[in-house]
Amino acid sequence: MSKSHSVNIRARRVRSARGPRAAIAALLVPFLLAGSPAAALTVSEKPGEPRPPAGMSTVGGELLGLPGVQIRPRSGADAPELPDSITSRSWIVADAETGEVLAAKNAHWPLAPASTLKMLFADTLLPKFGEDEVHRVTREELAGVGPGSSMVGIKEGLTYTVRDLWLGVFLRSGNDAVHVLSAMNGGIDKTVREMNEHARVLGADDTRVVSPDGYDAEGQVSSAYDLTLIARSGMQKPKFREYAATVRAQFPGEVKKGKDGKKKRETFEIQNTNRLLTGDVGLEPYDGIAGVKNGYTSKAGSTFTGVAQRGDRVLLVTAMHPEENGVRVYKETAELLDWGFDAAGKVVPVGELVPPDGAGSGEGKNSDDRPGDPADAGARPDGHTAAGAQRPSGGAGTALLVVAAVLAVLGAGAWGVHRRWPLPALPGRGRGTPGGSVLGSRGKPDRPGAPGTAGEPAGGPAGKNGGEAADGPDGKA
After folding, report:
1. From 150, 173, 211, 233, the catalytic residue
2. Dihedral angle over CA of 55, 56, 62, 66, nearest 10
3. Of 89, 173, 249, 350, which residue is the least packed, with the fewest Cβ within 10 Å?
4. So what's the pLDDT on residue 477?
5. Which alpha helices (DSSP H) does 203-301 contain, by range?
6. How would you class 137 by CB atoms within 10 Å of its CB: exposed for 0-12, middle for 13-18, buried for 19 or more?
């Protein structure tokens, strides 16, 4: 088949799905790429399957606004084929340091994000509070938590440090922790407004926040592209990196009177619900994983953004709405990570992760400040740094700091814009307990549906639904 004939076929496919504008874009793309192989465009033909919108954002490159799979094998490089088992409606594979998008499918499709939206919550609010700050929880702060929400087990009238609250957000996806931190920030409405403003700064224009915890809400959406941008921004922050890589930690429980008659604050263990970090039945921890966030609601289905390192390369992958729930989103993310590590250098980027507003040329900084936002210069937490903070208990499964501070060169290749944005040291090489999942032994591992795991009542002191967002009475979480 001739090159011109294949281009015409692509144009007809796009025309049927998106109209004349998309067809013109498909015709122009091969010439704009200056001789590089054109992106292979695949539009699903499955009857009844939801289709991406006719017009999607082109932030990061024109190809990222087209429907279907976008990939450009480098001529003569023997690029690996994409896994044919990927069912996610939208996904993206990107180099976390250079910002190059190696491949994507419907990258800008606005979809319900579930608890992956907590990455934006954390990236927005982390710089505001010192982790040793203590807060006493009121009934009003917990009153707005949606029914069926995932909870870490916060109790009114008790005190918690900011560190406790962030561990509740990152490890147990606790909507109760999100609501308490939002109250400390001036309320839900103010927090939602700031999250939307921060999304615009990051270039995450597909994202609209309605509820800061990711609980299903009318009009609340994000995209695989945006969640990847948000994760990349969050990983600039030492505390974000530390919390995202924490496998397990002790969380404050209730105050009880001991045998000696003295009152004592109990603690209970919480475990991360990121199954690529911890492992699960039929799923080994992913070698090199360093975070970041998972989510699930009945409306959104499963969503996940993960960051992992192999050698000197760090990749970000986001997968949204696979055909099955459970561990499927983790398996597909792992397959896309494997593909990305194999394909690096063998494909031509199909786009880039844009830098946030204000992240210009020059050396970056390794701090808890939001990149390029001078307003945060005076809002840096007074708490411990990541290097000196408490590590997850048990030792096994603790992610190690393995990468020296490096600079990200954004807009490489055909995109022609070279700017620098820092990617500090990552907690990498996340693994589960040798010989089995850190959630349990091989003989009796924890699993979805077991007490204390995602979406089911926790048997520990929390006494609430734990883990990633669980179905509530109205099908929300």
Report:
1. 173
2. -80
3. 89
4. 52
5. 224-234, 238-245, 275-278
6. buried
Give the C-alpha separation, 131 to 406, whole Å. 26
Query: How far apart are the C-alpha atoms of 364 and 358, rounded to whole Å?
Result: 11
CATH class entry, domain 71-477: alpha beta
Q: CA of 23: how far to CAs of 11, 19, 207, 391, in Å?
A: 5, 7, 26, 53
Instruction: Write 334-337 long-range contacts (CB < 8 A, 24+).
Output: 334/276, 334/286, 335/83, 335/85, 335/86, 336/83, 336/86, 336/91, 336/93, 337/93, 337/286, 337/306, 337/308
pLDDT the model gives residue 184 = 98
User: Average pLDDT of 199-215?
Assistant: 97
128 is catalytic: no
Q: Which one is predicted more confidently, 33 or 227?
A: 227
Give pLDDT, residue 48. Answer: 64
455 pLDDT more than 70: no
Q: Could you tell me how far CA 475 lies from the centroid of its own chain?
A: 22
Give tens-digit pLDDT for 380-421: 223 222 222 233 333 223 333 323 222 222 222 222 222 234
What's CA 397's distance to the chain center, in Å? 20
Among candidate residues 57, 88, 90, 115, the one labeled active-site is 115
Across the range 314-334, mean pLDDT stands at 96
The span from the CA of 231 to the CA of 435, in Å, is 30
pLDDT of 130 reads 96
pLDDT digits (tens, 9 = 90+) for 281-304: 989 999 999 999 999 998 889 999
**Which helix (H) or strand (E) covers residue 420, if one does?**
strand 419-423
The answer to whether the pTM exceeds 0.85 is no
Can 173 be counted among the known catalytic residues?
Answer: yes
Give the Cβ contact number of residue 312 at 10 Å.
Answer: 10
Domain extents for the chain?
A: 71-477
Q: Which of 118, 128, 293, 476 is catalytic?
A: 118
As a whole number of Å, the end-to-end CA separation of the chain is 50
3-state secondary structure of 291: strand
Q: Is 150 labeled as catalytic in the residue annotation?
A: no
